[in-house]
């Protein structure tokens, strides 16, 4: 775990980040209020028990009341089923991805294609997520509002989240924008470069003070 702000901890990060957890994990952030917390992305689900233990220690007695996903690519969503079960927390995702996650549709989330291309090991799976809901406008945790912004481009179901913290406006950008302003254009069926640019421009208008990429 890495303490980033009083309210925010980094609880998973793979080989493209800080190697806190499985190589195939995205960043996962724990956003904490006084007695409740929300998890933003889950990692791939590989070595998920270690990730769950790290989250439990980071909660500091708080209740994990929600898990929100920036999108359903498996490096961000693969741990959702296990972590939802462990903490009893519902999972929220873009409404179009709700059914994909509920049924564990590996074709719809691009896992079958990515696994065949060697992006993930042959045994990588997406477990169905029974307790999954389509996110609307926001989730509130101990009075802290986490706002959802639909940002298609990297994927059809991409969502960016913002929160007003003591240090300023935080943006959890998933795979829309990375550190130092980098972007990742994937050669996949649900990547749309035109909508990607539109989403980036829209998020730039929000003028975030802090960027927490996926």
Provide a descriptive summary of the structure in words.
- By secondary structure, this protein is an alpha/beta fold.
- The protein contains 6 helices and 12 strands.
- The chain has a 7-stranded mixed sheet with strand order 1-2-3-4-5-6-7.
Q: Topology, please?
A:
Elements: E1 2-5, E2 8-12, E3 28-32, E4 36-40, H1 48-59, E5 63-68, H2 74-77, H3 80-87, E6 91-93, H4 95-103, H5 111-116, E7 132-134, E8 138-141, E9 144-150, E10 159-165, E11 168-174, H6 193-205, E12 210-213
What's the short story on this structure?
This protein has helices at residues 48-59, 74-77, 80-87, 95-103, 111-116, 193-205, and strands spanning 2-5, 8-12, 28-32, 36-40, 63-68, 91-93, 132-134, 138-141, 144-150, 159-165, 168-174, 210-213. By secondary structure, the protein is of the alpha/beta class.
Entry keywords:
alpha/beta; 24% helix; 6 helices; 214 residues; single chain; 5-stranded mixed beta sheet
Distance between the termini: 16 Å
Largest sheet: 7 strands, mixed
Low-confidence stretches: none
Give a count of the beta strands, DSSP E runs of length 2 or more. 12
Strand content: 25-35%
Please provide the ordered H/E string of secondary-structure elements.
EEEEHEHHEHHEEEEEHE
Q: Helices and strands: which structural class?
A: alpha/beta
Radius of gyration: 16 Å
Number of helices, where a helix is a run of at least 4 consecutive DSSP H or I residues: 6
The backbone outline, from C-alpha atoms, is globular
Strand order of the largest sheet: 1-2-3-4-5-6-7
Percent helix, as a range, is 10-25%
């Amino acid at each position: 775990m890495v303490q980033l702000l009083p309210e925010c901890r980094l609880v998973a990060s793979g080989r493209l980040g800080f190697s806190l957890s499985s190589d195939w994990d995205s960043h996962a952030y724990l956003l904490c209020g006084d007695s409740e917390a929300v998890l933003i992305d889950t990692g791939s689900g590989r070595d998920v028990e270690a990730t769950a233990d790290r989250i439990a220690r980071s909660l500091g007695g708080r209740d994990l009341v929600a898990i929100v996903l920036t999108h359903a690519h498996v490096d961000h969503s693969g741990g959702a089923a296990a972590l939802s079960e462990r903490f009893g927390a519902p999972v929220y995702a873009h409404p179009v991805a709700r059914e994909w996650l509920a049924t564990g549709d590996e074709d719809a989330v691009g896992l079958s294609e990515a696994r065949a291309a060697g992006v993930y090991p042959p045994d990588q799976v997406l477990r169905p997520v029974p307790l999954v809901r389509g996110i609307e406008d926001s989730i509130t945790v101990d009075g802290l509002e986490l706002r959802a912004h639909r940002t298609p481009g990297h994927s059809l179901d991409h969502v960016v989240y913002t929160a007003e913290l003591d240090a300023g406006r935080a943006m959890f950008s998933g795979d829309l924008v990375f550190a130092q302003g980098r972007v990742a254009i994937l050669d996949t069926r649900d990547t749309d470069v035109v909508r990607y640019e539109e989403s980036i421009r829209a998020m730039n208008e929000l003028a975030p003070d802090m960027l927490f990429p996926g």
